[in-house]
Write a structure and sequence with these properties.
The protein is α/β, with parallel strands linked by helices and 226 residues long. 41% of the residues lie in helices and 12% in strands.
Length: 226
């Protein structure tokens, strides 16, 4: 695991925190299916997988607002309209995980880190109630000691609060920790927390190359970290 050692002063990190959607799992097919069902029930046209892929990453509420607006900018959507749509989306998505799948290299990396006694955590903007069941479904349920969802704390990424909380719980400092994500929010949160950030090139970053955000390292597969 030389790439990890290179990021942490020659040692393996004691804690590795992971984003979920777009980093560990490709959840867009299920998210898009739930978004489209919500829109149809509200008398609107479905938007499809490709557009939803560009809208994911800022939590369920922002995803719903973008779907209602039909684009990334959603300021014109009223709070009342968003409230109604969000409730319906969450109800639909609760039973909509059949198409979510692991990315290549994920299981291998997590197994290697676990074997090396590295503590693992998930820090995501997805609502917390969906995270543990989804991890169980894709076979990752036993790996993570801590899970922080988008509604666990008052703040979401790119705020570093969740990363800082997990680091406190793990009893590690920034030099002993690492964050792995796929989006601008992940890079900014890691930077604000003072920890190196590995970014995957295959995830969801609103259609922009993640290298533009200047993470510590960009990889095409998490297996590259082995």
């Amino acid at each position: 695991m030389k790439p990890l050692r290179a990021l942490c002063r020659g040692e393996l990190p004691r804690l590795v925190m992971f984003d979920l959607d777009g980093t560990l799992v490709d959840s867009v097919p299920d998210l898009a299916a739930a978004v489209d069902r919500m829109l149809v029930e509200l008398g609107r046209e479905p938007v499809g997988v490709d557009r939803v892929r560009d809208w994911v990453g800022n939590g369920a509420r922002v995803l719903v607002r973008r779907a209602l607006a039909g684009g990334l900018e959603h300021a014109a959507v009223s709070e009342a309209e968003a409230d109604v749509a969000l409730v319906r989306f969450l109800d639909i998505y609760a039973d909509c995980h059949q198409l979510t799948a692991l990315y290549p290299g994920v299981h291998e990396l997590l197994e290697a880190l676990s074997t090396a006694a590295v503590e693992l955590a998930v820090v995501t903007n997805k609502p917390e109630r969906f995270v543990a069941p989804l991890l169980e479904q894709v076979g990752l349920g036993g790996y993570f000691r801590w899970i922080v969802g988008g509604d666990t704390l008052p703040q979401q990424k790119p705020d570093p609060a969740a990363l800082l909380q997990v680091m406190r719980l793990a009893g590690v400092n920034a030099a002993q920790a690492l964050f792995v994500g796929d989006s601008r929010n992940d890079v900014l949160a890691a930077r604000a927390a003072g920890v190196p950030c590995v970014a995957v090139s295959y995830g969801y970053n609103h259609g922009r190359p993640i290298a533009e955000e200047q993470p510590s390292l960009v990889v095409d597969s998490l297996a590259a970290l082995l």
